[in-house]
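Researcher: We're teaching a course module on how sequence relates to structure. For the next exercise, students receive a sequence and then see the predicted structure as tokens, so they can try to spot secondary structure elements on their own. Here is the exercise chain.
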Amino acid sequence: MLFFRGLTGILAALAGWFTTILGMKGESRYSRVLRSIVGTCFTVLFLIVTLAMLAEAFRCIYDRFGYDTGYELEDDGNQYLSRGLTYHNTGYDDDGYVFDCNGNILITGISWIAKPLGRDSLVCYSNGRKRGYFNMYTGQVVVEPTYSHAWIFSDGLAAVDDNGLIKFIDAAGKVVIDKNMAYIPGMNGYVFHNGYCVVRGRGDDRFGLIDTKGN
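Model: And here is the predicted structure for the students to work with:
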């Protein structure tokens, strides 16, 4: 309420300033007509600003409480994947989706995504329970969400937690490195940089490096 009073005061002051500059303070017919025109213009401006604010407030409430009837392709929450694909995060668990440039929904039920590094094209995503991968250019799911933990692709490989063991898969989802490394909760990384990835030994604090060949 105070805001609207302040806005009204500002508009009234501006209207008075304009009438002073244009010499509309007198009681001549010319002055009265100009004051009427200026007053009408400022009233219309005030209504436009008020309606815009109400529309924005309604949109925020709409988005907050999810009063939608389906998949709305809104600008808010969109994350660019490629020229043809976009990921939309609705703000609610397991309700994100991927759509193409024609508005077609390709993948639904997404909790979050993690884009790959470099030239890799597979995006890691979660359905809220398991993790898998989809192609960021075609929207095709390459690896179904079957892993409890999975990391982003880098240098053509990605680490996955396969029943408590860390393994590395290629872009086809095939396991190419299996060194019987145990999954260690809280261990971050498993990402290749310049051909090497930091790994941790089983049951100790020793760290080492592994290359893309598994050496």
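Model: If you want an answer key for the exercise: The chain has two domains: 2-65, 78-211. Residues 2-65 form one domain.
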